[in-house]
Amino acid sequence: xxxxxxxxxxxxxxxxxxxxxxxxxxxxxxxxxxxxxxxxxxxxxxxxxxxxxxxxxxxxxxxxxxxxxxxxxxxxxxxxxxxxxxxxxxxxxxxxxxxxxxxxxxxxxxxxxxxxxxxxxxxxxxxxxxxxxxxxxxxxxxxxxxxxxxxxxxxxxxxxxxxxxxxxxxxxxxxxxxxxxxxxxxxxxxxxxxxxxxxxxxxxxxxxxxxxxxxxxxxxxxxxxxxxxxxxxxxxxxxxxxxxxxxxxxxxxxxxxxxxxxxxxxxxxxxxxxxxxxxxxxxxxxxxxxxxxxxxxxxxxxxxxxxxxxxxxxxxxxxxxxxxxxxxxxxxxxxxxxxxxxxxxxxxxxxxxxxxxxxxxxxxxxxxxxxxxxxxxxxxxxxxxxxxxxxxxxxxxxxxxxxxxxxxxxxx
Length: 412
Fold this sequence. Notes:
Elements: H1 4-18, E1 27-32, H2 36-48, E2 54-59, H3 61-70, H4 73-76, H5 81-92, E3 96-101, H6 113-127, H7 132-135, E4 141-145, H8 149-155, H9 161-175, H10 184-205, E5 209-213, E6 219-224, E7 231-232, E8 235-236, E9 242-243, E10 246-247, E11 252-254, E12 256-266, E13 271-273, E14 276-286, E15 289-297, H11 299-306, E16 315-320, H12 326-329, H13 337-340, E17 346-350, H14 365-370, E18 379-383, E19 390-394, E20 400-405, E21 408-409
């Protein structure tokens, strides 16, 4: 493996800061078989950290496509009880989770949307009750990426496969804070401190709503739930373990009120959903619900997303990302939500994060909904931020306070 030292540092970061594996704790890794050398490093580092055991759950992008092409909708929707039992056992043992992503964007293009929807709905309905384990930060979880030739060619089609891979590899190390001579764990401690400071200031303002506007055509009012909490950087489990769920992360995020979103939002980057890329799309909200939508590319997939369940037409997250973030300044379109959402202000359709409301992690889904939180089996981020984005915070007395100008924070 080239750059072995860099990958080992990334593995240390993933285990010691991302999932923050504790002594005696199981680690579940989800990864494509193409990434086995890096996964071996992660497993080794996890055992160095004292992991009880490492459970690697492999997948293969090409086989996944073959499954969709050849299986019936009925077979795809038949989610075995064994999958639920395996997940529940990991939760009962207090496992933490680490997902490694490197897939080629748009790998399911040409697959009937009905097949993808059949599987997704069945999976979420079967596994939905178990989502609280990570959504409520009961156990640590982390998502990070590593370069693959397939992904690199999609990002840099003008380069040879080798050149594209080397360029994507270098960029991913850079935006994840890994260099030859630094301590990436210390880097993220300092980086998180800045995000935590912005989140604290936003919470103290206690805005009633935010007003987003830019030259693409976004003109959107996003009401916030009462007793909301802005979150940035990492999260903390009930046991007091701090972890970074996304590496990298550049956002501070909060919970919209499911019935208090009005106006129009225009996407600024493609959305990778169920293996296809939805691009140049517009959503119109009335009283929190998407009532009109249009996409220049993959509109059928956008319709599938919005009709996934009742909560999929409502927002579960609003996130602020300054235009000067390292990912934004790279000027690269990654075609991957983990990276693209950290280059741009974004919204999420579907399920909210309970940590964004005071006492939310102890609330039932019904209690959360009573407070204005959304309810859904999915959570799908999409990007709408731009270099000219303006954001105003509107206080309960009507006072307007500038939060973003020209795509960046201006609050003190």
